[in-house]
Amino acid sequence: MTSQDFKSRKIKFKAWDLEARLLMRLNSIECQKGELFKKEHILLQFTGLHDKEGEEIYDRDVLLIHYEKFMVFWNEDRNGWFYCPVGKPEKQEPFLVNVAEKMKRFCSYFELQTNNPT
Fold first, then answer.
1. Terminus of the chain with fewer CB atoms < 10 Å: N or C?
2. How many domains are there within the chain?
């Protein structure tokens, strides 16, 4: 194999603006010692997967199967994307292509919390 056999993957982010309480696309992200950040924002990485309508799925997105809501997140301990019913983190499962393609993106978890404060 040569270096030409390897293709860089596209790494995309959205961000939750903590002050404005809005989900937004970013024009820029700062990088310090290899770590990406944006002050006063929570970065949400693209999972590389799409929902049944071809919409991109990002970290902390809320997805629907029928009327049941699930959240996608990165599991640090298991080094991968997982999903679970909203409010039931103990029921997490690996988030794979065949699962994503059955779901419909609803909103970001942060938007859900903003619209339904407890």
1. C
2. 1
Three-state secondary structure call for residue 12: coil
User: Which amino acid does the sequence have at 31?
Assistant: C
Does residue 4 lie in a domain region?
A: no
In a domain, 103, yes or no: yes
- Spatial strand order in the sheet of 68-75: 93-94, 80-85, 68-75, 61-65, 104-108
Q: What is the DSSP string of 21-87?
A: TEEEE-S--EEETTEEE-TTEEEEEEEEEE-TTS-EEETTEEEEETTEEEEEEEETTTTEEEEEETT
Full residue range of the structural domain in which residue 75 is found: 10-115
Residues 59-88 pLDDT 10s: 999 999 999 999 999 999 999 999 999 999
- The closest alpha carbon to 100, from 54, 44, 66, 68, belongs to 54
In a domain, 5, yes or no: no
| 3-state SS class at 110 | helix
Backbone angles phi, psi at 112, to 5 degrees: -60, -45
Residues in the chain: 118
